[in-house]
Amino acid sequence: MDRKTNIMKSILVTGGAGYIGSHVCYALKQQGYLPICFDNFSSGHRWAAKFGPIVEGDLLESQEIERTIEEYKPFSIIHLASFIQVGESVKNPAKYYENNIAGTINLLKAVQKYEIPYLVFSSSAAVYGTPEYTPIDENHPLKPINPYGHTKHITEIILQDWDKAYGLKSVSLRYFNAAGAFPEEGLGEAHEPETHLIPLMIRAAQHQKAIQIFGNDYDTADGTCVRDYIHVLDLANAHLKALDYLVTGGETVCLNLGTEIGVTNLQMVNLIEELFSTKVPYRFLSRREGDPSVLLSSALKAKELLNWQPKYKISDILQHAWQWHSKEIYGE
Ligand code: UFG
Which H or E run contains 175? Predict the structure, then answer.
């Protein structure tokens, strides 16, 4: 079954109103699918859910997800709904285990009941914990260092067991640092509170208010952390490729999604200053708890198995994010 023969086939996207979910829904619609956005709007935005039917529902309410699956009969699930703040997960693990694990179990029970054969899961590089070597490939030990990362790792294990017992085929996509925006479609990052480097650095430049850079004593080229920033549209495209992989008989697998290029926090300052002819005011603070010094992917496996290739460079990511954050009101 290839994508073009799937005209208007519906796909349930949990967390479809979120930052990555909304770009995934856009990409699905572009390819002729009907994305059903299932979201409790605890952090997703109504303005971002505009590519298909919207169901306001919560995975913790099993009848809501069952009813939605019964009504729309999706042939696959893309599961992105989860809480994502690392710091909060350390302070309040109950919230994370309940939402990210119990919610997923409710979803998977419905998937089993309605015999949906495929699922793409939004996992994270947080499953690796502190890197023992870089670039990080999928064989790297899985030792998450916070409850958020544990919930992603546990879900991957649950999905493997669901395959063995019930035959559900899944792809867990381990995102590195999602970034960028799609201003032409009115899509971009709007977290509340915002904790991510690129939006905060762009705001610092646009409002000339200093950003705090956490740590300048890491064992890296300039002492600041290294991250692998991947454009959200490249991530969205990988979900389509993962679907293709599953419908053509692919086995359950976990795959890294990154660009394999590292950027330090100070290099990010320089890139923004050069691209936009501005100053990024910053000051150094001590290290943020739980931050690995380097997160750099090997994405070879995704490239080989999915025939996926990131298209956007860090300069594109910054241009798009800059444009997005220049808007007074999100989603206009
Ligand atoms: N940083 C600052 N100042 C800030 C914010 C961030 O210096 O105000 C630094 C961080 O210390 C880190 C880098 O910028 O060195 C990137 O931080 P982000 O918060 O943007 O992203 P993380 O790498 O911490 O987190 C991302 C995802 C998580 C995921 C993690 C590992 O947001 O969901 O990658 O995959 F768990």
Answer: strand 169-175
CB 46 within 8 A of CB 18: no
How far is residue 205's CA from residue 318's CA, in Å, rounded to a whole number?
Answer: 12
Q: Considering only CA atoms, which residue is closest to atom 5 of ligand 1?
A: 197
229 assigned to active site:
no
Instruction: Report pLDDT digits (tens) over 154-168.
Output: 999 999 999 999 999
| Distance (Å, whole) CA 69 – CA 71 | 5
CB distance 30 to 62 below 8 Å: no
Tens of pLDDT along 116-128? 999 999 999 999 9
d(CA 324, CA 210): 20
Whether the full predicted model's pTM is greater than 0.90, yes or no, is: yes
Distance CA 154, CA 293 (A): 24
Sketch the domain layout of the chain as residue ranges: 7-179+230-258
Burial class of residue 132 in the structure, from the number of CB atoms within 10 Å of its CB (0-12 exposed, 13-18 middle, 19+ buried): exposed
- According to DSSP, residue 32 is labeled T
Mutate to test the pocket of ligand 1, among 85, 90, 196, 269 (most ligand atoms within 8 A of CB): 196
CB 129 within 8 A of CB 143: yes
- Contact status, residue 204 vs residue 210, Cβ threshold 8 Å: yes
Q: Which of 150, 265, 272, 293 to mutate to test the pocket of ligand 1 (most atoms within 8 A of CB)?
A: 265
CA-closest residue to ligand 1 atom 10: 214
Q: Bridge-partner residues for 36, per DSSP?
A: 12
Instruction: Please choose, from the candidates 249, 314, 243, the residue with its C-alpha nearest in 3D space to the C-alpha of residue 77.
Output: 243
Tokens 């867990």, residue located: 172
Determine the CATH number of domain 7-179+230-258: 3.40.50.720
Residue reference for tokens 């796909």: 11
